Amino acid sequence: SEEAMAIIQKVAKYVGRQVGPGNLLLDGRLPDGSRVNATIPPVSPNGPTMTIRKQMSDPLTIIDLMKFGTVSPRLAALFWMFGDGMGASPCNIIVAGGTGSGKTTTLNVISAFIPSKDRLITIEDVTEVQLIHEHHVQLETFNSTKPEEPEVDMDALLKNTLRMRPDRIIVGEVRGPEAKTLFTAMNTGHDGCFGTVHANTAQETVSRLINPPMEVPPIMMNALHLIVMQSRITVGGKQMRTITEVSELAGLEGDKPRLNTLFKWNGQTNKLEETGVPSKLREKISKAAGVTPRQFDEMAQNRQKILESMVQRGITDINQVSTVIQNYYAKM
């Protein structure tokens, strides 16, 4: 126990934090990007604990998810279409799921479709989003352990971000007052905002957003376009992380947001299947880009072929995948 405390104290000092009677929890980031968490008595009565979550040196890409079967080629192409909005109307997207379900991985993957010319600002408690992006500014909350040092929370960072002329905003985890600030931004012209929320279904995601402590007014929910549900499920006796639902926000029924489910997990076939419900985002993006829905479909098919070609050629490295995507934009 004493040896464990000594290690925790050393790690706390290394990450610029303090652990002791007045601060029983440690949450920080190591230089290699790994997250470190520690607890000491009395919050962990059986003794001090420390957990290190290593960050992947080679982040997963959309091509990896296609090879794993997590994302179909069709859905991958739609993520690309929705993520950049044909350069005219990028969608606001929330990736939701439980702890350890793979939300951040999916957020990373969708964020890779952001054009490199866009000024992108990420806001997180501890840096986890890994992007290859020329104009990427990373902001991280600051939990002070000294009275003279002011704390900087997610909401303060988000409000400051709105003064930094962002083209895109990514919030690592939306869970408090920053939700209302984010939705205010979405409702005042900041398109293409992404974030994650802890929830188990798309409907629960909506419920969590409009109720305390987030309290987003239902009328503002129209600014959210897409909810991607990530889950940890058991298939054939093995646990896997996969997307289990993709739903659009389709207006209000009374004062409650209505969902339009495009993809749903089928427990009998163990596959994410398209529901056949017409996509309202297809119409929205087509109109903003000045093309017909048929032209939208043709572009989606073209992008699907590009993604499938990378799968066939074994291109999974994040730098190479990013280069292919950005070269596509350069030729548009």
TrEMBL record:
<dbReference type="Pfam" id="PF00437">
    <property type="entry name" value="T2SSE"/>
</dbReference>
<dbReference type="GO" id="GO:0016887">
    <property type="term" value="F:ATP hydrolysis activity"/>
</dbReference>
<dbReference type="InterPro" id="IPR001482">
    <property type="entry name" value="T2SS/T4SS_dom"/>
</dbReference>
<feature type="domain" description="Bacterial type II secretion system protein E">
    <location>
        <begin position="25"/>
        <end position="234"/>
    </location>
</feature>
<comment type="similarity">
    <text>Belongs to the GSP E family.</text>
</comment>
<protein>
    <submittedName>
        <fullName>CpaF family protein</fullName>
    </submittedName>
</protein>
<dbReference type="InterPro" id="IPR050921">
    <property type="entry name" value="T4SS_GSP_E_ATPase"/>
</dbReference>
<dbReference type="InterPro" id="IPR027417">
    <property type="entry name" value="P-loop_NTPase"/>
</dbReference>
